[in-house]
Structures are given as structure tokens and as C-alpha cells.
Amino acid sequence: MSDRTVQRQMNDAATLVNEFPETRAALASGAITSAHTRVVMPAGQIIDRPELKAEYEASVLDNARSEMRRHLRVRDQHCRFPGCRMPTRRCDVA
């Protein structure tokens, strides 16, 4: 891995922690994937006003969470806990 790649990844991590706290929390909890963050952050960085950035982040994360739930329901069709066969529509998906 090149120094430039490492530097970019470190900058991206700092941006995530400092400018997108809700996105970082959603990623840490597993509610969204790193692919979501790669879409949310660049689009949100052009927003200068903190209150508008927070509004954008909340809106985008709501959409990402619902898409993630839909994806898991389609892919898994039942609870993934070992031994549990409960249908996903009855599971507590993050």
C-alpha cells in the first residue's frame, strides 16, 4: 500500500470522526456499511453550514438504514442467530 493511499485513508477516517458523527456511529453499530460512508461523506463535505450538514446526514442515514434492512430481509429471509429460524420480518434488524 502506498504512502498516498495510507494518507488518504487517514484523512477519510478523520473526516468521518470529526464531520460525520452519526455516520460513524451507524457504521460502528453495523446499521450501514463502509460503502455507505464512501457515498455520504463526499456529498456532505460540500455543505458548509453545520445544521444543514446534520440534516443531510440524518436524511441520508434514514434511507441507508431502510435499504440495509430491505437487503438483509431479501438476502437472509430468516434470523441469522445460530439455531434461530424466525422470519426476518419478525426480527429486530438494526
Characterization of the model:
With 94 residues, the chain is mainly alpha-helical. It has one domain. The protein is built from four helices and no strands. Helix 3 packs antiparallel against helix 4. The chain is globular.
Short description:
It is built from four helices and no strands. Helix content is 69%, strand content 0%. The longest helix is centred in the last third of the chain and has 27 residues, at 50-76.
Unreliable parts: none
Q: Could you say which structural class the secondary elements and strand pairing correspond to?
A: mainly alpha
Q: Cα distance, first to last residue? A: 33 Å
Which strand-content bin applies to the residues? under 5%
How many structural units, i.e. domains? 1
Mean pLDDT comes to 85
- The number of helical runs is 4
Radius of gyration: 16 Å
Reported for the largest beta sheet, the result is: none
* 3D shape: globular
Bin the helical content: 55-70%
Number of DSSP E strands:
0
Layout: helices, strands, pairs:
Blueprint: H1 3-19, H2 21-29, H3 34-45, H4 50-76
List the main descriptive attributes of the protein structure presented here:
94 residues, mainly alpha, 4 helices
